[in-house]
Amino acid sequence: MKHVKIVAFDCPDAWYKTLEAVWSKGDIFDVCYGSERSRTKKLNISIDIAKPETRPLVPEKAPCDMKYVHWYALKYLWSGVIEKETYTYGSRLRKPLDQIEGAIKRYLEEAADRQITLVIRLPEDILKHVNDQKHEPPCLSLIDTEMLDEEIHLTCYFRSWDAYAALPANIAGIQVFNEAFVSEINQRSSLDLKTGRLVFHSKNCHIYERQFKLVEDLLKPKADGRKKMFQAVSDPKTE
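Given the sequence above, the corresponding structure tokens read:
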């Protein structure tokens, strides 16, 4: 199993660098069980985003837009139940215990607390079926939070992550979620917090076979540009 660390400036930079890493260094892995059976390229990956608040949050060529990102952040992550969905991340974060509200109150009580972790995955998710529901354990398992230097930093774990279709919306949506989280703390206190770094880990960040051509076409202009730059430097023209 290969592990790669990505250091990125902002959310679009993180998406491109992750796709490039999975495409060029990923292990071939045949998914035989889960939501989709497919050949994939996959990596165990860590992504460190220094300035995730930088706009735009979504790259121009990503298969999502800011309308979807705001829905994902504020409806799927922040608020809770969505009709016809077995569950959402928000529904698990809000019930049976409201972890988001609890985290806000805890920071108001003790800003130095390093133990404020929001957990989405449940122990019973290890079972094949829970309450006769389809077996769909959440991809996003936890969001760990930390206040440092007047910023809230998030560290998130995805057990499985679609690098092409899901990742750009996920990281942008989690940044919007963090902005809402910080805003709520600031409104209830004399603090003037800002959002900080976003760090992600995933043991299975992957590209599906049906996406191979899309990713290849997306990365080709960047690869060609680097090749021309290298050729210009290594073989400068003389006048």
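The longest strand covers residues 194-208. Try to locate this feature in the token string yourself.
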